[in-house]
Amino acid sequence: MPRPVATEDVFRAVADPTRRAALEVLSRRRDLPVGELAGELGVGLPMLSRHLAVLRAAGLVTEQRSGRQRLYRLRPEPLRELYDWAALFGEFWTERIGSLRAYLDRQAGNETDGR
Predict the structure, then answer these.
(1) How confident is the model at residue 88 (pLDDT cuts 50, 70, 90)?
(2) Which member of 7, 16, 26, 114 has the lowest number of beta carbons within 10 Å of its beta carbon?
(3) Axis crossing angle, helix 45-57 with helix 17-28, rounded to the nearest 10
């Protein structure tokens, strides 16, 4: 099976907390006007415009003009690539958590033995 890929653009886009928050808001609402999105995020339009440019470049949002408004919509498909790539590390974390559990069980056993 080929290794899942996630583009650098997607990683860069989701690395910023404001962009992650924008994606979360857009996941709950469709075709959100840019002014409304800025209000929900508590950021100014110039800053939000820069963040939306990054999200558009990564293919995570689409922009549609409706009269004088710009409406944004989440395009979640690139997030699937990121999810598939991160899933490669699931076994690693399962193993690490299992080792930690065994260690803590041994420590708890030593404490109850009076050591």
Answers:
(1) confident
(2) 114
(3) 80
- Residue 86, CB-side half-sphere exposure with 13 Å CA sphere: 8
Decide yes or no: CATH 1.10.1740.10 for domain 8-112: no
By three-state DSSP, how is residue 49 classified? Answer: helix
88 or 43, which is more confident? 43
89 is written with which tokens?
Answer: 């590390």
Q: Which residues of 88-99 are buried (b: 16+ CB within 10 A; e: fewer)?
A: eeeeeeeeeeee
Structure tokens at 46: 């110039």
Q: What is the pLDDT of residues 42-55, one digit of tens each?
A: 999 999 999 999 99
